[in-house]
Design the sequence.
């Protein structure tokens, strides 16, 4: 009977995954607030607003509504569909895309904006009408607009707008004139000229390469002829320049804020002309209802649980579907009694805080967190492709293109955590999950913690621990450590990807420790971690791969590659052919697509939790509930993506998107 139930759940799960590309498939209507609920919500908004919801500015103001992706989408749709005025709002959209891009893509986007929106409009030869750029619609799920910081008062900004808005569009099709337009054109053209010069340049600064003159310097652009790295040092200024360019893969000095002043003036012109009409439209009503829905408390009934995917220390992980959008996620459920019994409240809170703090393409993201009387819930990215430990076991080792791709993404995931002052502490192949298309992300942030001057103690998995986690001072106390421990674990993983074996979980490491008198496997591995210098078989490791792993596995955390940030690792010759712009922008196609069969063990293997007497005797009181008072959270980007995908589908089909019938039919439009 259990096997039959597993088969039914598997079929439902596979069907849900296979139909995701067909568009949103809601099963619940969006709840529509009453006037009383809206009034109560507006009062609450005025009392507290901190930007955590993805909205900025004075609550309920034009800037506040439109600083979220949902608000911007609604206003853009209103201007285009109701007012048949698209050029200026398209200009704003292109500026937002420019700000999100980097490297060569950013340069090309700047060139497009300059030639299509800022030049004096050309006139049609036959009728004299201005030739306007083509109309486009928002297709992205995350195109949001944050208010620009221009360094001027509101009065000064309004004066600037009065001087710069050209209502007759004589100077350019977006209605800009005067110094704002002229200075912008000069700045953009200058930036384009610099970019062209840099693209033609044949040399870039080089990193110190130790004593091996055979090492090659990396090509920042991912190609071209390599040159020997000389064992010389470079100035800190050159290092900063190189690291900036590596992180962004910049093709020129094109700052992301170059269009800010012009965009703010154009957007103010749109506000003056259309905001009052927008507030009287159905688009505004829908927007308010959606934002009210975002701010309402999430409850378990908002999700439909599918099949069980795994079991954690405090509960199960299941696939689930968000009722109003049909979006698939992973639901991690942790029982409050089990958490209390193991005194792990702080562990659970740390994971929740770390997940909410890190928004990255390279880390499994938190979408929603909420709690009920008995459980706490984390709604996460659903990764259906299995973990790298599983695939490594199946393949023996990874092809170099796979090693490069996985290592690059994992590295950027670690750096995203470090940028928020977190250290991960649990990197291993089993904690790197593949999505359905093969994109890899770091998962399980249960051991991630904020860096403090006194952070100490081994955490994670033996054999991936950094040596400094095991060190003690002369008084026997554990030594503090920082971000560099993650780069040691990263080195272990890279070596494992290349060879199929972790250097410190190998037979050589075990023998190393046993020969030094260690009595257990665990102590032998710890001994090897602290004292053994691994050998990298040239049949598996080319010279650059061996050098990379050697420098990542440096026992000295101060000289370890990555100690000053991931740019040091990005600059290593082993990554020479990686096009960082493609990786960072998530445009690089994965080298391997996992099979589409269900990547989860049968329920019988996953098992269940026993409701023993000790657990039953645990009582959750008011003090325990106080621990979770700040647990509830909605990721504004995740919510916006659900709503905008929903609205794009309706726009494309020209019909309202209705829930799939489940005992009742109801309109899914938020009106």
Sequence:
């Amino acid at each position: 009977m259990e096997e039959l139930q597993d088969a039914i759940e598997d079929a439902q799960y596979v069907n849900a995954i296979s139909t995701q590309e067909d568009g949103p498939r809601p099963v619940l209507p969006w709840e529509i607030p009453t006037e009383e609920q809206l009034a109560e919500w507006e009062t609450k908004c005025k009392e507290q607003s901190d930007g955590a919801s993805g909205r900025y500015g004075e609550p309920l103001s034009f800037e506040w509504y439109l600083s979220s992706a949902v608000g911007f989408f609604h206003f853009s749709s209103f201007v285009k569909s109701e007012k048949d005025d698209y050029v200026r709002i398209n200009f704003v959209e292109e500026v937002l895309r420019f700000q999100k891009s980097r490297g060569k893509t950013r340069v090309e986007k700047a060139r497009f904006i300059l030639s299509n929106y800022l030049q004096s409009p050309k006139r049609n030869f036959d009728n004299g009408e201005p030739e306007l750029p083509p109309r486009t619609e928002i297709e992205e799920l995350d195109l949001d607009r944050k208010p620009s910081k221009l360094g001027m008062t509101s009065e000064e900004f309004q004066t600037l707008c009065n001087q710069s808005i050209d209502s007759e569009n004589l100077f350019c099709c977006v209605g800009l004139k005067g110094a704002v337009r002229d200075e912008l054109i000069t700045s953009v053209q200058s930036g384009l000229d610099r970019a062209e010069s840099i693209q033609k340049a044949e040399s870039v600064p080089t990193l110190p390469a130790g004593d091996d003159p055979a090492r090659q310097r990396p090509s920042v652009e991912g190609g071209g002829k390599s040159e020997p790295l000389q064992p010389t040092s470079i100035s800190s200024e050159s290092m900063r320049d190189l690291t900036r360019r590596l992180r962004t893969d910049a093709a020129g000095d094109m700052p992301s804020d170059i269009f800010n002043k012009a965009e703010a003036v154009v957007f103010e012109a749109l506000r003056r002309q259309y905001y009052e009409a927008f507030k009287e439209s159905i688009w505004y009503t829908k927007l308010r209802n959606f934002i009210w829905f975002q701010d309402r408390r999430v409850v378990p009934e908002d999700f439909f649980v599918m099949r069980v995917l795994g079991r954690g220390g405090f509960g199960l992980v299941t696939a689930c579907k968000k009722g109003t959008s049909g979006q698939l996620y992973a639901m991690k459920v942790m029982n409050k009694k089990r958490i209390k019994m193991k005194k792990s409240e702080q562990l659970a809170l740390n994971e929740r805080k770390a997940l909410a703090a890190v928004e990255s393409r390279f880390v499994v993201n938190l979408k929603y967190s909420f709690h009920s009387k008995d459980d706490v819930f984390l709604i996460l990215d659903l990764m259906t492709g299995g973990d790298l430990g599983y695939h490594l076991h199946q393949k023996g080792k990874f092809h170099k293109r796979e090693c490069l791709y996985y290592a690059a993404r994992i590295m950027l995931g670690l750096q995203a955590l470090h940028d928020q002052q977190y250290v991960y502490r649990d990197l291993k192949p089993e904690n790197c999950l593949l999505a359905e298309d093969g994109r890899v992300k770091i998962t399980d942030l249960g051991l991630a913690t904020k860096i403090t001057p006194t952070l100490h103690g081994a955490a994670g998995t033996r054999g991936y621990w950094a040596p400094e986690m095991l060190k003690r001072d002369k008084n026997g106390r554990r030594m503090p450590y920082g971000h560099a421990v993650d780069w040691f674990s990263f080195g272990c993983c890279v070596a494992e990807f290349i060879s199929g074996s972790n250097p410190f979980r190998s037979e050589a490491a075990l023998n190393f420790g046993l020969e030094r008198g260690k009595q257990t496997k665990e102590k032998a591995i710890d001994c090897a971690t602290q004292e053994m210098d691994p050998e990298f078989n040239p049949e598996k490791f080319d010279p650059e791969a061996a050098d990379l792993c050697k420098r990542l596995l440096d026992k000295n955390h101060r000289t370890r590659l990555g100690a000053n940030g991931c740019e040091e690792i990005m600059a290593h010759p082993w990554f020479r052919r990686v096009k960082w712009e493609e990786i960072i922008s998530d445009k690089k196609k994965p080298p391997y697509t996992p099979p589409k069969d269900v990547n989860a063990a049968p329920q019988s293997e996953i098992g269940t939790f026993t409701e023993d007497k000790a657990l039953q005797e645990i009582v959750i009181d008011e003090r325990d509930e106080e621990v979770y008072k700040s647990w509830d959270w909605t990721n504004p980007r995740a919510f916006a993506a659900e709503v905008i995908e929903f609205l794009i589908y309706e726009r494309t089909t020209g019909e309202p998107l209705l829930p799939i019938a489940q005992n009742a039919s109801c309109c899914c439009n938020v009106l």
In short: The mean pLDDT is 85. Strands lie at 303-311, 316-322, 328-335, 366-371, 375-380, 422-423, 432-434, 440-442, 449-450, 633-634. The chain is about 45% helix and 5% strand.
